[in-house]
């Protein structure tokens, strides 16, 4: 089965999204799974994972409600307050089976936040429960923090969102720096990454090209291998970067030259294993 491991839904009437404002144009509104369902079906994508979009329980409730009525939603990456381990312990106990991971918007905080002892205690709870941590980054420098967490919590599965925001459109020096940081993360065998959200890092979000994205996917394959990479569409943010069709075509086009086993892993197998879907 082809699985999109990174989709969002949100409803500002039911949850607070502090980052959602007029600057985000067409996605500054309620986002329904019904909107993306036809595009998934058209591409043979049979399953999806909904990913946390705000640091509150109401956002998780929005996703769970969608999952309850949409058979294509195979998993939900939920929110629990990582700086409050006592609450994390309770949440992990009562999460529904559809909850397959946890995420906080750590990229909107000071980088030191995720390295504090209280968060460390929460990550140990996630590791003991077998719950992966999705990790978003504001830029690729935060990959250093992921490497640190991998060393501190060797039993924790860490899912790097969007390949850690590679410097697409920047100079070769930035590319080399990103690759070195991703290589440090790759030293931890329980760290995986999403081939998702690969947009221009400078200028307009949609100013990327396939040729600009290709080296970063190839580097990720070299460093992590297909069994540690997951495809994600990053919808609806992808609509601001040229649209779901354009980003899907770019990723699958780059993978066309790879063996069938590689494509199968990235486009579904890895997600099914990491998130224990189905």
What is the fold's blueprint, element by element?
Blueprint: E1 2-7, H1 33-42, E2 45-51, H2 57-69, E3 73-78, H3 85-94, E4 99-103, H4 117-129, E5 133-135, H5 143-152, E6 158-160, H6 172-186, E7 191-195, H7 210-224, E8 229-231, H8 244-255, H9 260-274
Parallel strand pairs: 1-2, 2-3, 3-4, 4-5, 5-6, 6-7, 7-8
Describe what you observe in this structure:
- The chain has 278 residues and is an alpha/beta fold.
- It has a single domain, classed as Metal-dependent hydrolases (TIM Barrel, Alpha-Beta Barrel), CATH 3.20.20.
- Helices cover 41% and strands 14% of the residues.
- It contains nine helices and eight strands.
- It has helices at residues 33-42, 57-69, 85-94, 117-129, 143-152, 172-186, 210-224, 244-255, 260-274, and strands at 2-7, 45-51, 73-78, 99-103, 133-135, 158-160, 191-195, 229-231.
- An eight-stranded parallel beta sheet has the order 1-2-3-4-5-6-7-8.
- α7 (210-224) links the parallel β7 and β8 (229-231).
- The mean pLDDT is 98.
